[in-house]
Amino acid sequence: MEIRNAVNRWLIGEALDQANGNISHAAERLGGARARIRKRWAAARTLPGNAMVTRFAKIRSSTAPPSPDELRALGTFRAVYEAVDRWLLTNALEQESGNVTKVAERLGTSRRLIRTLRERFGLGE
Length: 125
Fold this sequence. Notes:
This protein is an all-alpha fold. The protein folds into two domains: about 1-55, no CATH class; about 60-125, no CATH class. About 70% of the residues lie in helices and about 0% in strands. The protein is built from eight helices and no strands. The protein has helices at about 1-20, 25-30, 35-45, 50-55, 70-75, 75-95, 100-105, 110-120.
């Protein structure tokens, strides 16, 4: 998903800045393997700066997205992704009146993943 690449660009870029460009230290800070961090960083750097905005511009949120400070405090990739995914899914489901098919189309993913995430986050039927 484009939003994950945008999150990767921000999160890995910040970790690399704090680690003075050392991928091993950045991976340790983020709780991930060096190879995975390198792969995600390579994918994130190839995106145009506004890639996330194009797909998600239509989402009018009734709740504010997690702030960079809130995400920074979470620390690990898993926790950051979960916070972003929860916010994105909650708002997409709200806009599409709970229609999983439309949400999956909007977010560019499968209905199965939407149902799994909805169950994991306790967002009901």
